[in-house]
Amino acid sequence: MGTLLRDGATLHMTDTGKGLAVVFQHGLGGGEAQAAQTCPAGFRRITLECRGHGGSDLGERRPFSFEMFADDVLAAADQAGLDRFVAAGVSMGAGIALRLACRHPQRVAGLVLVRPAWTFSPAPQNMQPIAEVAGLILEHGTDKGRTIFAQSETAARLHREAPHNLSSLLGYFDRPDAKAFAQVLADIASDGPGVAETASAALDIPALVVGNAMDAVHPLSAAYTLAAAMPGAVFAEITPKARDSARHFTELHTEISSFLQSHSKMRSLISS
Known about the structure:
This protein is α/β, with parallel strands linked by helices. Helices cover 47% and strands 17% of the residues. The longest helix has 18 residues, at 245-262.
């Protein structure tokens, strides 16, 4: 674990393993542990804990945004000495990876998007529950906010349709930094990667998009949409984490490893 200094913020950065360089970003509220769980071994993995995540500072710049986080990640790739790399991530990290691929095509040789939550528009409807949680914490604090949310129509719907999503949302109220982190939630939920569908269609790199059912925050439709937009994309549907977590990660690791190992052109671009 190293550090990256960015306009007053100290950000934690992991650079581990050997081989093909994969910059793998966590999701909203996640960190190094989530990236380590999601990305298979056998590659060089670089992960930057975004501002307010894991051991990274919030810093003083506002608002939080995909642009800010992606610029930080590109700086981490620079610090790691990477000219080209595979951009990868889960949920919010997938959005960061897509932005890097479209805004910095000379740097990104391949793309892995796991359980994407955003496509081409900011503030998608599936982010509404996170925005709702953030607003309650900011207005009422954690205790009262949690009580209000637990009795809401949103919580009732998620309890029926995606109880694991509800559990994750309730976890935001339990964070020791909940009040400060709520602003990150609010800003990112209302933002988007800032990528047009035409930009994705212009990508000339291998891409893997992985999705699963039974997930209200990361709808399978988002993964379908992104895979369909990119001419070089492969789509893979895996077992939902909510149904069988162990099988989910086994299948996910197999899909990512097979993809990264099968594209010799991508590998040669990164090693050159």
